[in-house]
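Team,

Forwarding the record for the chain on the shared tracking sheet. I've put the sequence and predicted structure together so nobody has to dig through attachments.
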Amino acid sequence: MIELKDFGAVLSRDIRNTVKRTMASTATLAEFKAKAKFGHYQPGWKELSDATLWEHSIYFGARGGSPTGTSDSPLLLTGELRDSVQSSSDDMSAEVGTDNPKMPVHELGDGNTPARPVFGPLIDEMEPFMQGLVDDAVLLEMGEK
């Protein structure tokens, strides 16, 4: 027989496990969404300069074409930056990011490179989704959904 105090521990463990699974799924989705932004203009991104487009056309021309079919592929010259994006999760959080030292320049911009943020907008995009998943998981575990 489970006593009331034990029931709280079991319920808490079940909810934690459900939230942990939810965080893992959310991290994977966030990584996928982040990687999908590379090579495609996002709201607020400036167009590539003529000089950058020229560099891309030379680079892609020497390699038989670009992965997107055009030299106008922001943040996607070699795919190295996109491919460096990784995700992780634990019991109560999900993370997505990169340790590539080039990303902060692109995310925030500098004197020569305009900001083309990926992760800032991704947080805004994922937060309501993540909260909804957690809420649904908790309600499901409590038998209210």
